[in-house]
Amino acid sequence: MVRDKCRALPLLVAGLVSGLGASCGNDADDVHGPSDSGSSDGTSSGESRDGGTCDGAIAVDAAPPVDAVLQGRIDDAVNSIRADSCFGQADASACAWANYEVGPAWFNMAKSAGEAILIIDSFGAGFFPELVRYRNRLLGVYVTSGDEVEPQVLSVLLPQRLGDVLVSFAGPEFVPASALLQVALTADRAYGKLNLFYPGHGGVVFGHLVDLVPEQPLVLLDSTHLLDIPPEVCPGIDSRTLAAATAHFGAIAASMKRMMTDREVRFINASFGLTAPVLADQWQRSCSGAIPNGEELQQLLHVYDPLFDLLFNTEGVVTAHAAANLGDPADFPFDQVGPQYPNRVRVGFISSSSSGLDELGRGTVRKKEQFPVDGDADVYLNWDCEVFEGCAEPHYTMASAFGLAAGNVPIMSTSYIDPLALARLVNLRYANHGGEPMSNALVRVLERELAPALCGPDGTEPCVYQDPIAHRQLEVYRLGYR
Q: Dihedral (C-alpha) 208, 209, 211, 212: value to the nearest 10 degrees?
């Protein structure tokens, strides 16, 4: 379940509150970190790994220098949008609108590593305009339907000049969102009152990842109903209904595996979790009658075993999983460390503008904040910012405003740091092992390199605190895009 109480967090651009906005969610009962972002439709199975407040704004970075050719394209986009005065009227229904398709037919990358990233999250229609901007990166957008995951071809209605501009930056060459701030500001003035863009939880996760892995194809799976309690379980939890539900999720896992094979998925971002408390909350929304007792909820959790086995134990696929503060292992079975999930990395974060860590994670860590507690994550990454105190340069940013600007969230969560860990794993894979096929053996090596055993009193413990942004240990740097 993506918890969603607050949606009014605006995008702050040079002191101007922009209507192109981002999103924030809030749930004081959430146990997964001091920040949250809600889903675009208020519903999602599973839980986002967030918590927190809604009193900040996304601070947008200044645009970096660009070459003359790209600047000419930016100037053309700005001039086209400036000429679109129709949408300043009270009634925009007679203005020029157009539909834009997002689907695999539009995939077009000049440089592609070939191995795709699967992002599993809640993706609502408010986020689809940004997918127009990145449609050249998308091998597919999928939803669950019965026992299958099925591809979608999206149709996104936008002001025509805005849509044409988004398409103009949709490949095949990589154009970072940070380079397009002039376009974002102009688009806000022309279309801000229309409230066209709401990223939701999945959009914020996507925005953090997309520009860090510029040569990776992307696949999206909408998780909104992926982990729903099957209706046949609602009359009561017994051996028959549990067997039926397990078969349902086994079929979904088999369908997902076929999709992953077809799309050559080698990396997965899983910024969600499933626990007994989450199932209790979901039961109230999905089923009538009393909430099952603790033992029954623990039994119900295991109907999802086929899905989590797929995510965390598929040959040659590594998953970054947003970590949580853990409770009873029987209530948190999919968050436990152990040999049953060898291809999963549990990801936490620290907040520091100067961590004191070297490129291997050695040193006495300086941090203002950490989540989750020691031992409940396999690695804790720094986002190079401190809440209410500012950020270092460089720091963790996200693409937002239709993919036309880059900035940073004011608060962090394991949901949002998860893409940074995945991007670092991608970097380790290509920087150190580009000529090797992905395999379980290579996944073990990447996990060790992510947190090398060089720390602790005798220098043999994993260096669980890492600062990849400060040391530019990401593909966007290695490949010379930033």
A: 110
Q: What is the Cα–Cα distance from 224 to 153, expressed in whole angstroms?
A: 17
Residue 269 within any structural domain of the chain:
yes
Reported in sequence order, the residue ranges of 51-198 that DSSP labels E, i.e. its strands, are: 58-60, 97-102, 116-121, 138-145, 148-152, 154-159
For residue 271, the one-letter residue type is S
Q: What's the chain's average pLDDT?
A: 89
As a three-state string, the secondary structure of 237-250 is: CCHHHHHHHHHHHH
DSSP for residue 88: G
Residues paired with residue 154 on neighbouring β-strands, in sequence order: 102
480 in a structural domain: no
Structure tokens at 236: 């009561």
Cβ-based neighbours of 441, under 8 Å, separated by 6 or more: none
Residue 333: cis peptide before it, omega within 30 degrees of 0: no
pLDDT tens, residue by residue, 264-276: 999 999 999 999 9
Strands 138-145 and 218-222: parallel
Structure tokens, 63:
């645009």
Give residue 60's pLDDT band: very low, low, confident or very high (50, 70, 90).
low
User: Domain limits at 134?
Assistant: 11-64+95-345+384-454
Q: CB under 8 Å to 280, separation ≥6 — which residues?
A: 291, 292, 297
**Lowest model confidence (mean pLDDT) among 18-27, 305-314, 435-444:** 18-27
Number of domains in the chain: 1
Higher pLDDT, 464 or 27: 464
Strands (E) located in 352-415 = 369-371, 379-382, 385-386, 390-391, 398-400, 405-408
Q: Which residues pair with 348 in a beta bridge?
A: 380
Query: Residue 451, Cα to own-chain centre: how many angstroms?
Result: 22
Is residue 8 pLDDT above 90, yes or no? no
CA 150 to chain centre: 20
248 inside domain: yes
Question: What confidence category does residue 53 fall into, taking pLDDT thresholds of 50, 70 and 90?
Answer: very low
In this structure, how many other beta carbons lie within 10 angstroms of the beta carbon of residue 230?
Answer: 18
Dmax (CA) for the chain in angstroms is 71
Residue 284 to residue 28: CA distance in whole angstroms: 18
Tens-digit pLDDT profile for residues 115-147: 999 999 999 999 999 999 999 999 999 999 999
Task: Using the predicted structure, report yes or no on whether residue 9 has a pLDDT greater than 80.
Answer: no
For residues 204 and 38, give the distance between their C-alpha atoms in angstroms, rounded to a whole number: 9
Which single residue is written with the structure tokens 């989540």? Answer: 371
Residue 108 lies in a domain: yes
**Closest CA relative to residue 268, chosen from 319, 314, 222, 226:** 319
Query: What pTM value is reported for the model?
Result: 0.90
